[in-house]
Amino acid sequence: MDNHTFITLSVADGSEMGAYIAMPDEQTPMPGIILLQEAFGVNSHIRDVAERLAQEGYVVIAPELFHRTAPSGYEGPYDNFAAVAPHYQAITKEGLTADLQTCYKWLQEQAFVQSDKIGSIGFCLGGRVSFLANAVLPLSAAVSYYGGGIPALLDEAVNLKAPHLFFWGGQDTHIPQEQVQSIIEAVEAAGKAYLNVVISYADHGFHCDQRSSYNPDAAKEAWAMTLAYFENKLKQA
């Protein structure tokens, strides 16, 4: 298999799902990571994140979460959320769960993936899906960057399997601090391990260098912590 390629996977509900794969050149046993898109598809930014993780020694799969309503390879414009809204609104918890299980199964089937060292990371929409992944899959680590919509999944807090790392922008008007507090309180009440990082000078989408809200300092700082977290949770014995 090409180290950086799109594949097609069959999901339990009968749908076909595209996914981008990135992996290191050296295929010795290594951890796996499910990378979850923003509302704008598995675009060049998400593929770049996949490449960066692969360079750090992870096998990465980034599924196309809109595959039931959008064509394969779909990418939406950052400046026109209305264009992506129909696909965004069409996703369901059940469908996402099936997609996540499909990705997890694919990682389990790769001989060079450490089957007991799987993590997830997601941005915006993907941050919410990463929270769900931590509840429905036996993960060892999960990360959510400014995950919108997590309050709708708080009944899953009791099911979180791994420590969860949250990043938020203090300037984010899409996700007010009251909402962040409600999420953390639910995770705490469930007795689950977490790290909660609020970057006071960052806005929503601060990690994406293709968005007007990109904050280079916040992106660099959060990424360094993300890599340290994955190193601890996925690469230590």
Automatic annotation (TrEMBL):
Enzyme class name: hydrolase
Entry EC number(s): 3.1.-.-
Listed GO MF terms: hydrolase activity
InterPro entries linked: AB_hydrolase_fold, Dienelactn_hydro, Dienelactone_hydrolase-like
Keywords: Hydrolase
Matches recorded under Pfam families: DLH (PF01738)
Keyword Hydrolase found: yes
Residues of the Dienelactone hydrolase domain: 17-232
Protein name per UniProt: Dienelactone hydrolase family protein
